[in-house]
Amino acid sequence: MAVTIKDVAAKCGLSISTVSKAFNNYADISAATREAVQRAAKEIGYFPNAIARTLKTNRSFNLGVLFQEERGTGLTHSFFAAVLQAFKTESEKRGYDITFINHNIGWNGMTYLEHCQYRNVDGVCVVCASFYAPEVIALVNSDIPVVTIDHAFANRSCVLSENLEGMQALVNYAASLGHRRIAYVHGQKASVTEKRITGYYRGLEANGIEPKADYLLASTYASPEAGAEAFRQLMALPEPPTCILLPDDHAALGALDAAAEMGLRVPGDVSIAGFDESRLAALTRPRLTTVSQDAAGMGRRAAQLLIERIENPRTAGSETGLIPTRLIKGESIGAVAAQ
Question: In terms of C-beta density within 10 A (0-12 exposed, 13-18 middle, 19 or more buried), how is residue 27 classed?
Answer without folding.
Answer: exposed
